[in-house]
Structures are given as C-alpha cells and as structure tokens.
Amino acid sequence: MAKTKIGNQLTFERIAAVARRTGSDRFYLDLASFVAVTLRCRRWLVMRYPRYAAPEFIFNNALSSHAVQDYLSGLYRLDPLLRLVRSGNREGIFVLSKLKSNKSNRAYFDRLFRMSLIYDEAALLLPAPGGSSIAVCVERAARQFSSRDSDFLRMLYPLIKSLHGVHLDRIFRAPAPESEAGRGGWAKQAVLLIDKDGRPVFRTNPSSALTSG
C-alpha cells in the first residue's frame, strides 16, 4: 500500500510540474518526458501532424538523424498517425502495434521501426488549430505496450488534453498592456488566425472585435 501511495504522489507531482509549463516553450518537452517516465520508456518524441503538409518534429529523443531524414524524404506518407489525422481522427490514444493490419502499416513498421530499433510505440494525439494534431509518442525497444498501459493512458488522456488546451490558450493570448496590468492580468484582445485559404483556424473571445494574425 505504501508503495502505491508513493507512486501516485510522484505521478501527481510530475503532472503538476507539467501544468506549470503551460504557455512556455518547454511544455511539450516536459509533457513527453512525463509520459515516458511514467510508462518506463527511454525514448520519446513530439510531432505536429498537419492535414496538408509533411509532419514536423517538435522534439526528438528517439530517432537518429538518418532515420529522421529517411522519414521526411517520403516515408512519412506511410505513417499511420498522419493518415489518422488526415482522415479526421485527430485525437485519442493509439498503440502502433495494434495498427499493423494493412500493407502500408506493415511496410512503415518494417522500415522505420527496424531502422530505429523500435518494437512498439504509444501515441497521444491532441487536436490543434488548422485541423492538425500534436502527437506525444513514447517508444519501447523490446516489448509491446500492454492493455494495462493503454488503460492507464486512456485514464490520463482527459487531463493531458485539458493541459494542452490551456497551453494553446496561453500561447495565443498576449499579456495585458501595462495600463491594464493593475486591473486584471491578461488582455481581453480577440485574435483570429486564418489559414492560407482564408479559413479561421483559431479564435479567442468571439464576441469581441477580431484582429487577424
């Protein structure tokens, strides 16, 4: 019982540390590290999956420079997570060993996973502006993620998704001008982000006048 209590306390302390990073450039770095440590994984990465472009590496603590080059040179087109995002499935928990059913997935695993000595990968897809997703991925070299691991991630996912939402909200909001600092913290300025086709992808305070950026 004592060991379980200590383990839970450490988990809460670690997620509290991640929460303190919302709005900073270390948020996804600390979030991925938290998930990796909690699931006893040594390697992890954070990706951005856009709907209409190649994926982007935000943080990489898993793949060699050669594997990254191979991935970005075209292998990414077989990435099952990218295909999930482009099909509209932009959020949730996915264990890649469970996605080997079709030929494209098997080719992807055989090439990238063998090159990088990856046996299995668990990914948390988090919805982001513009129809994109942020993926926090943790990897194992010698064993698969168990059903218990998946259940734990599903239990944790709503909290992580909420922190991700707070992080996006904070990075898209500007601090209040000095004249307003004494009257209430954040500025009540509305912001509208528009993609290259003129479609709104993110907005704050929709009831206020909007400025584009």
Number of helices: 7
- Terminal-residue CA separation: 53 Å
The Rg value, from CA coordinates, equals: 19 Å
Sheet of most strands: 5 strands, antiparallel
Placed side by side, the strands forming the largest sheet appear as: 2-1-5-4-3
Q: CATH topology of the largest domain, which one?
A: Beta-Lactamase
Number of individual domains:
2
Give me the strand/helix succession: HHEEHHEHEEHHEEE
Please mark out the parts with pLDDT under 50 across 5 or more consecutive residues, or reply none: 1-7, 176-191, 201-213
Mean pLDDT: 80
Helix fraction by DSSP (H/I, runs of at least 4): 40-55%
Shape: globular
Structural class: alpha+beta
Strand content: 15-25%
CATH class of the largest domain: Alpha Beta
Account of the 3D structure:
- The protein has helices at residues 2-19, 27-38, 65-72, 80-86, 103-116, 147-172, 178-181, and strands at 43-49, 56-61, 92-95, 120-128, 132-140, 190-194, 200-203, 210-212.
- It is 42% helix and 22% strand.
- The strands form 2 sheets. The protein has a 5-stranded antiparallel β-sheet. A 3-stranded mixed β-sheet has the order 7-6-8, with no helix packed on it.
- The longest helix has 26 residues, at 147-172.
- It has 2 domains: 2-172, Transcription factor LuxR-like, autoinducer-binding domain (Beta-Lactamase); 178-212, no CATH class.
- With 213 residues, the protein is of the alpha+beta class.
- The chain has 7 helices and 8 strands; from the N terminus they run ααββααβαββααβββ.
